[in-house]
Amino acid sequence: xxxxxxxxxxxxLEGWPWRESIRRGLAPxxxxxxxxxxxxxxxxxxxxxxxxxxxxxxxxxxxWRSVSPAWLIVGCAVLGAALLGR
Length: 86
Hints:
Order of helices and strands: HHHH
Shape: elongated
Distance between the termini: 33 Å
Number of helices: 4
Helix content: over 70%
Largest sheet: none
Mean pLDDT: 92
Strand content: under 5%
Radius of gyration: 18 Å
């Protein structure tokens, strides 16, 4: 609901002169928050050579092709259940 409300407000303020400055200021904040979340999850999830290989493969695919991360998450979940029994 918060995201929806902010999106509506953001669209409504399209002609506002401060909008571009806010967007530029919040971009590094959002990137930092995503990176911090990724590192936190990686510390918990990557704990043996098989999970390191899966994380490396996902990173390579994301850098090489334009694939939805949702499909990679589902694929790794299935592969992890089959290989790791988790």
